Amino acid sequence: MDALAGLLAGPRARGAFLLRSVFEPPWSVRIQDEAPLTVLAPVRGEVWVIPAQDAAVLLRPGDLAIARGPQPYPYERVDRGAQALRAATSLRVAYVGGSSKGNLDFEVALDDRGDCTGRVDLAGRGSFEFVKAADRRWIRPSPEYWSYLARRQSGGAVPENAAGRYLAVHAGSQVAAGFESMCDLDRLRTRFGSLSSGLGTLTEAGTETVAGVRAVKYHSAGAEEKDIYLAADGTPYPVKVETLSGTDRGTVWFSAFDRPVTPTAPPADQVLDGAKANVPGIS
Predict the structure, then answer these.
(1) Is the pTM of this model over 0.85?
(2) 49 within some domain
């Protein structure tokens, strides 16, 4: 009797079978056949085995894992959330935390056509709302941000009747380049769609309600320490990711997956021409 046969005979396993699977990353599989005992042996590559309750285990060729049932053991539920994010055609994202330019607070609703609407709050410089519809762009600065723009000019001043009005942003300007970054859904999906990379030890940490959504919390102790919240019901969309270590500590919220984004152009009498107003970075 060889070692494997002895292992199966000990608990009186019956009806055992061998299943060989070949996957190309990224992939994930949720096993829920309720088998009382399963033996896992990777031949090539690396595999994270993530039980429903216990810490994740990394397997490499030569390793052997035994899963005791009948509870299901998910392979990378977090990866399913990442895949759902990468497949989104539109969504709303909010972020509060650090950035290369200091503390940042922003919210944006955007879609795969490049349309978007939102706001940005820059610590110490004020805030502004922004709208992009097709190839037209506007921002509406707060009084503090108007003052910041004026200070960037040599002896500049806030334009008359500027309060509460929008600035039309010309294509090719510095601010227009910022729009392309903020309203680029592909860029955002690439950045946050890698949730399942570098997870390290992943532990399920209960269920919480996040912005009205029941979510399962996972704690990741990898290169960065973070808490990942996935929708508990239906598609496991990510609803919140909190980065707890590193230089980019902060919290990002996701919502409104695949809901239409309908930016509205501001009334013409509420718009100033950025070039005529001599606002830096607008023309």
Answers:
(1) no
(2) yes
